[in-house]
Amino acid sequence: MTKPTDKQIPITVEEDIAAFLDRLWLKQGVSQHTSAAYRTDLRNFQRFLSQYQQTQLRQVGQLDIERYLLWRRQQGLSPRSTARALSALKKFYQHAVAERWCTHDPTAKLARPKQPQVIPYTLSEQEVEALLAIPDPADPVQLRDKAMLEVLYATGLRVTELVQLQVDQVHWQQELVRVVGKGNKERLIPLGEEALEWLQQYLTHGRHQLCEQPGDWLFVTRRCGPLTRQAFWYRIRYYAQQAGIRSQLSPHTLRHAFATHLLNHGADLRVLQMLLGHSDLSTTQIYTYVARERLQQLHAIHHPRA
């Protein structure tokens, strides 16, 4: 099979996809990123159907989806992206059955493809300290970045959660930050003395220097709006280079460091799950492998008979 051509999606299919995504947002509060990914996955499946079977989303059976999954494998697409595509299809057809667009769910008996376990890369405690020491507090922009990095490492927030924080989400007396994460689930996370100190410094000496009327956003740009996820990721990479960190980084590097360092210092896995906002403990358990690997490295370096 060749790659499906970029055929126009039928209007009725676009309407079905839009209705499904609206319902998914109302019921589960999925992010714009997830919604966009599901839209792309469903459109790609429709293009496949249009080229090879001349059918539409409402008309398929299990065999059609199995052929699509086989085609993806033949194209060398990753198991992770295929798992996401199948997840989109499963949710769509559950909705389709509930709305009586379809009489049965063609994905019901399909298992998600197995994915290789990806161990998240993290920084050592020394590397984190070096990174946090780089921003110059005398500069309002770098003072803001310093406060953001400190909060990120202290709380393990997702970068999207960090850049979308508003002033009233910080509870100073309780020393907590209130976060609304995936699925509109709310959690309270301790900030710690260091993060609170730099956050106060930023609010006193940086925020209004960047923007005279910053509004509700906690971390603002000179244009008085929030940073984008991409802009803050660029800032992290800049400071990492300045700190001499040559290791591979990702937008979640400090989140991974937060989780791994807590485990290394004896944190309970269930507590870590709550702090990270994971709905499933199995997602949190990946950090036990990172912590174990670090312990093995320390043992190899320091034990006289290692």
TrEMBL record:
<dbReference type="GO" id="GO:0009037">
    <property type="term" value="F:tyrosine-based site-specific recombinase activity"/>
</dbReference>
<dbReference type="InterPro" id="IPR011932">
    <property type="entry name" value="Recomb_XerD"/>
</dbReference>
<dbReference type="InterPro" id="IPR011010">
    <property type="entry name" value="DNA_brk_join_enz"/>
</dbReference>
<keyword id="KW-0131">Cell cycle</keyword>
<feature type="active site">
    <location>
        <position position="182"/>
    </location>
</feature>
<dbReference type="Pfam" id="PF00589">
    <property type="entry name" value="Phage_integrase"/>
</dbReference>
<dbReference type="InterPro" id="IPR044068">
    <property type="entry name" value="CB"/>
</dbReference>
<dbReference type="GO" id="GO:0005737">
    <property type="term" value="C:cytoplasm"/>
</dbReference>
<keyword id="KW-0132">Cell division</keyword>
<feature type="active site">
    <location>
        <position position="158"/>
    </location>
</feature>
<dbReference type="InterPro" id="IPR004107">
    <property type="entry name" value="Integrase_SAM-like_N"/>
</dbReference>
<keyword id="KW-0233">DNA recombination</keyword>
<comment type="function">
    <text>Site-specific tyrosine recombinase, which acts by catalyzing the cutting and rejoining of the recombining DNA molecules. The XerC-XerD complex is essential to convert dimers of the bacterial chromosome into monomers to permit their segregation at cell division. It also contributes to the segregational stability of plasmids.</text>
</comment>
<feature type="active site">
    <location>
        <position position="278"/>
    </location>
</feature>
<dbReference type="GO" id="GO:0007059">
    <property type="term" value="P:chromosome segregation"/>
</dbReference>
<keyword id="KW-0229">DNA integration</keyword>
<keyword id="KW-0159">Chromosome partition</keyword>
<dbReference type="InterPro" id="IPR002104">
    <property type="entry name" value="Integrase_catalytic"/>
</dbReference>
<keyword id="KW-0963">Cytoplasm</keyword>
<comment type="subunit">
    <text>Forms a cyclic heterotetrameric complex composed of two molecules of XerC and two molecules of XerD.</text>
</comment>
<dbReference type="GO" id="GO:0006313">
    <property type="term" value="P:DNA transposition"/>
</dbReference>
<protein>
    <recommendedName>
        <fullName>Tyrosine recombinase XerD</fullName>
    </recommendedName>
</protein>
<dbReference type="GO" id="GO:0051301">
    <property type="term" value="P:cell division"/>
</dbReference>
<dbReference type="InterPro" id="IPR050090">
    <property type="entry name" value="Tyrosine_recombinase_XerCD"/>
</dbReference>
<dbReference type="InterPro" id="IPR013762">
    <property type="entry name" value="Integrase-like_cat_sf"/>
</dbReference>
<dbReference type="InterPro" id="IPR023009">
    <property type="entry name" value="Tyrosine_recombinase_XerC/XerD"/>
</dbReference>
<feature type="active site" description="O-(3'-phospho-DNA)-tyrosine intermediate">
    <location>
        <position position="287"/>
    </location>
</feature>
<feature type="domain" description="Core-binding (CB)">
    <location>
        <begin position="11"/>
        <end position="97"/>
    </location>
</feature>
<feature type="domain" description="Tyr recombinase">
    <location>
        <begin position="118"/>
        <end position="300"/>
    </location>
</feature>
<feature type="active site">
    <location>
        <position position="252"/>
    </location>
</feature>
<dbReference type="InterPro" id="IPR010998">
    <property type="entry name" value="Integrase_recombinase_N"/>
</dbReference>
<feature type="active site">
    <location>
        <position position="255"/>
    </location>
</feature>
<dbReference type="Pfam" id="PF02899">
    <property type="entry name" value="Phage_int_SAM_1"/>
</dbReference>
<comment type="similarity">
    <text>Belongs to the 'phage' integrase family. XerD subfamily.</text>
</comment>
<keyword id="KW-0238">DNA-binding</keyword>
<dbReference type="GO" id="GO:0003677">
    <property type="term" value="F:DNA binding"/>
</dbReference>
